[in-house]
Amino acid sequence: MTKEIIDAMAMQRALTRITYEIIERNRGINELVLVGIKTRGVYLARRIAERLQQLENTTIPVGELDISWYRDDADINDREKINLGVDVTNKRVVLVDDVLYTGRTIRAAMDAIMDNGRPASINLAVLVDRGHRELPIRADFVGKNIPTAQNERIRVNVEEIDGIDEVSIG
Amino acid sequence: MSKRYLILADGSIFEGEGFGSRATTFGHIVFNTAMTGYQEIITNQIYHNQIIVFGAPTIGAGGINHDAYESIMPTAKGVIVRDVAEVSTNRQKRMNLNEYLDYHNIPGIAGLDTRALIRHLRKTGPQKASIVDFPDEHAFDQLNATVLTNQQVAAVATPRAYPNPGTGSTVVVIDFGLKHGILRQLSQRDADVTVLPYKTDAEAVLSLDPDGVIFSTGPGDPRDLPASVIELMRELQTRVPLLGIGLGHEIFALANNAQLIQLPFEHHGTNHPVKEVITNAVLYVPQGAGYAIDPASINHDQLIVTHLDLIDDSIQGLRHRDYPAFSVAFFPDSAPGPLEGTTVIDEFFDMMETKDRF
């Protein structure tokens, strides 16, 4: 049985709050770059960028990151350097993902970003933090903390590809 | 019923039928465009010392109900309507508007051309007015000689602290003459609330270890409040998640070096379209404001404009750039009014939930 735990309104509100928090934390948006982790993190990153555009009238670059080759269960010799599509050197990077779970995806994403340049800082924004970390990683911006059991499944839907904004647990 | 008169400081006279109390009163005149919610409006303490003109043609059809009070003692000085409903059929009705106003010694005038009056007020702006038995020279002399207090908050805000317990987030409300709607919104979210007088100092607030602080709505011009209120805001906004509403929004702006301007005519109604800048979404919200923030005075390194009125572009919401502190000019408790604005209260609770991350 799946149960909706964040509806469309609450998701919008969470993204809005995260956007304000990014401004607060960075004392502005200078040198800011958003990097979304594929697939849904990219759409969330774009929505945050749209909000920043509305507020500050500035276009913030959004990079896209597919971490498949950086997974810790992939062979490092197969690894190809990923083109993020944005320059991260000396930038303040905000990584955006839908769900923070073990932390392994984020570790891979940080490796991939570092391979592209040397950012001034990396922050992490996630829509849902479900716990059960296996690495020492924490998010700076969290839409909602949702305590879960290991065998539960968190599903994030975004309107752009799923037709609906919703987070459900099952 | 007998003839009674509304006289304005500019010399105009409007004739109608008296209802409610027979008292002669003086107050600032304001008009409200709300179609419903007269009980909440009359009992809202922002109307302290004000004579309220309702733009909707018939007022009073729902009577007076137990669940629509925004304060215990209404302190408005008069109610002007086109038509006062004699029959109210709401099953929750306890008394009709006429009886209620009489009980609280508030005079009313019905049968007056409220559309002409409102057009007149839109041109002439805020002014003193009086409800009298006869509009002679003596009445105008009395009106002109009357000095209305600028210490409205002192008259309606709580002089001592009181609790409104819950089992959730701890919220301190600094009271400037709050609407009960704010407390109801907090109760719905199970907040553990302490309401403090506005002359409280920051230490007393922080000693309660609040998750968040609200600066409430209230009457009058915030520049007439003691300077300690501005200091309180400056101190608290750096320490704890903070929401300013109505008068609290104006205090938030002043504390962050913005300036106020008097609106050419006040905004009072329940259907004002407001744009949330960050999402471009439109909210319909209840408003009750005589002042707005001067857009030219905003230091954009300090404040972000979050909400704009779609009718006159006036600033309806602000947020601090460096702290989790924000404010709205409109009434997010939506009492009365559409419920869309209550998302502001949800935002405040989200903010309190995540405050420990910083």
Characterise the protein shown here.
The complex is a heterodimer of chains A (170) and B (358). With 170 residues, chain A is of the alpha/beta class. Chain A contains 4 helices and 8 strands. Chain A has helices at residues 8-26, 40-56, 104-116, 159-162, and strands at residues 3-6, 32-37, 62-65, 92-100, 121-129, 141-145, 154-157, 166-169. In chain A, strand 4 (92-100), helix 3 and strand 5 (121-129) form a beta-alpha-beta unit. With 358 residues, chain B is of the alpha/beta class. Chain B has 2 domains: 3-148, 3-Layer(bba) Sandwich (Glucose Oxidase, domain 1); 153-357, Rossmann fold (3-Layer(aba) Sandwich), CATH 3.40.50. Chain B is built from 10 helices and 21 strands. In chain B, the strands form 4 sheets. In chain B, strands 12-14-13-15-16-21-20-19-17-18 form a 10-stranded mixed beta sheet, sandwiched between helices. Chain B is globular. The termini of chain B are far apart. At the A-B interface, helix 1 and helix 2 of A face helix 10 of B.
